[in-house]
Specification:
Blueprint lengths: L1 H5 L2 H25 L1 H9 L2 H20 L2 H4 L2 H23 L12 E8 L4 E11 L5 E3 L1 H9 L1 H9 L14 H16 L9 H9 L2 H15 L11 H24 L3 E18 L2 E17 L4 E7 L6 E2 L2 H6 L7 H16 L4 E7 L13 E2 L4 E2 L7 H15 L12 H4 L5 H4 L2
Parallel strand pairs: 3-5, 6-8, 7-9
Antiparallel strand pairs: 1-2, 4-5, 5-6, 9-10
Helix pairs in contact: 2-3, 2-4, 4-6, 7-8, 7-14, 9-11, 9-12, 10-12, 11-12
Length: 430
């Protein structure tokens, strides 16, 4: 009968499983189609309300039938009561709640929300006030360069949150190759963190199979997701990746550092951040640049060196600071601009000078390889950040003022070379 059905524990379990499945479906709908669609299809649907009503009836019926109060089953009583309160709260919010937008700038206080409907927008007064004491914007060096290269691409990726379709492949692609190399380097260099002039230790590591073990572990953890996998189980492509990464480490990175060991590694995969002040549209703002530096060394002269491992074609030469922001497509070099941003963050946050260094692993086996930036405008190599600070930060402020000015649209770049490998060139029709 109905009484037995509604007071049954089996009914409770079945209803909770259906409820959990519904919430999971709503989560995926919200992620891919937006909150409004998720509300219409799941959260505010009659079936979902019926399901919640049946849960409340079930909890009450089970509590009465099994006499939790008389038997002192306070744990079960509290659990059932909590579910009922949560579901009644959701119903109250649906029937009497209002959803609106509260617009605030740093230092402002307001109690007015804008409620938008399909017909118009009305302002409602809240029974309390909200004050925005501090607001910090956050941007990664990669995202910042995306704007420098093409403001419209930045809009598609970072504002509209459009994502390209992932290509399904059984082989190791370029990003995964880089991930494996970074992970293996972190494992190897973890041994020398804090060691001054680690050349001897690095040479000893090169003579052993430590690099091979580190690469194998990196592949297992990041690609195969199987810590117990062995090279005997690898495909031919994966074995090739293992051998190439091992060669890059032993014959390139480690060999170079062993020969030029006037440094002490102080950080690996280290988070770096700095709140950069600027003005936009008459407002004083701060943008928090933040990212993960592959490696940070302290050189013998006391300066810091930010090391960035790169697996692509080498680009160490550039035509001056301004070319990185305002130059033609091929002059705006992402690796150099991003590494300078990391140097800027260290320069301000650590209070000492910093030198950018790009480790292009393809070329590090060469005896004459030098990872320092080569400024063709100044005719200098390995220039510390302090020499660039004034012009670099002025260009940074100008670019950020444009980015955060509501009157400036996200325009399409004018360089067709930038569009060749853009994920959104189908939208732009270029």
């Amino acid at each position: 009968n109905l009484e037995r059905f509604f007071s049954s524990f089996v009914t409770t379990i079945v209803l909770l499983l259906i409820y959990a499945f519904g919430l999971a479906v709503a989560t995926f709908i919200e992620k891919y189609h937006g909150t409004a669609i998720a509300k219409a299809m799941v959260y505010y649907s009659p079936l979902f309300f019926l399901l919640q009503f049946l849960l409340v009836v079930n909890f009450i019926a089970a509590t009465l039938k099994h006499q939790y109060l008389k038997r002192g089953r306070w744990g079960l009583m509290l659990t059932h009561f909590a579910f009922i309160v949560i579901l009644l709260g959701a119903l109250t919010s649906f029937l009497f709640g209002e959803e609106g937008i509260l617009h605030l700038r740093e230092g402002e206080t307001s109690n007015q929300i804008a409620v938008r409907t399909s017909d118009n927008t009305t302002f409602h007064t809240l029974p309390f006030s909200v004050e925005l004491k501090k607001f910090t914007l956050t941007l990664s060096p990669t995202a910042f360069f995306r704007y420098v290269a093409c403001p419209l691409r930045f809009y598609f990726h970072s504002v509209a949150r459009l994502t390209p379709d992932d290509e399904v492949t059984e082989e190791v692609d370029a990003p995964m190759f880089g991930t494996i190399l970074h992970a293996a380097a972190q494992k190897l260099y973890g041994r020398i963190v804090g060691e001054t002039h680690p050349g001897e230790t690095l040479r000893a590591m090169i003579r052993t199979d430590e690099a091979t073990r580190a690469v194998t572990e990196a592949i297992n953890e990041n690609y195969l997701r199987d810590a117990d996998a062995t090279p005997e189980e690898y495909t031919g492509n994966l074995l090739l990746v293992k051998d190439i990464v091992t060669r890059y480490l032993r014959g390139g990175i480690m060999r170079h550092d062993a020969a030029h060991d006037a440094f002490t590694t102080t950080g690996l995969e280290h988070e770096v951040a700095y709140a950069f002040p600027f003005e936009a549209a008459g407002r004083k703002l701060q943008l928090k640049f933040a990212g993960i530096a592959d490696r940070i060394d302290r050189l013998d002269d006391g300066t810091l060196r930010v090391v960035d491992y790169k697996t692509g074609a080498p680009h160490l030469e550039f035509a001056g600071i301004e070319s990185l922001f305002r130059g033609e497509g091929k002059q705006r070099l992402s690796n150099i601009l991003q590494t300078l941003l990391y140097a800027m963050m260290l320069y301000h946050s650590q209070g000492c000078d910093a030198r950018p260094a790009l480790y292009y692993v393809r070329n590090m086996h060469r005896e004459d390889y030098a990872p320092e930036l080569d400024d063709k405008q100044l005719g200098q190599r390995g220039t510390p950040y302090s020499a660039y600070a004034a012009p670099f930060e002025e260009l940074l402020r100008t670019t950020l003022a444009e980015l955060y000015d509501p009157a400036v649209p996200f325009r399409q770049c004018e360089d067709p070379d930038t569009c060749k490998f853009c994920d959104f060139n189908v939208i732009c029709k270029r």
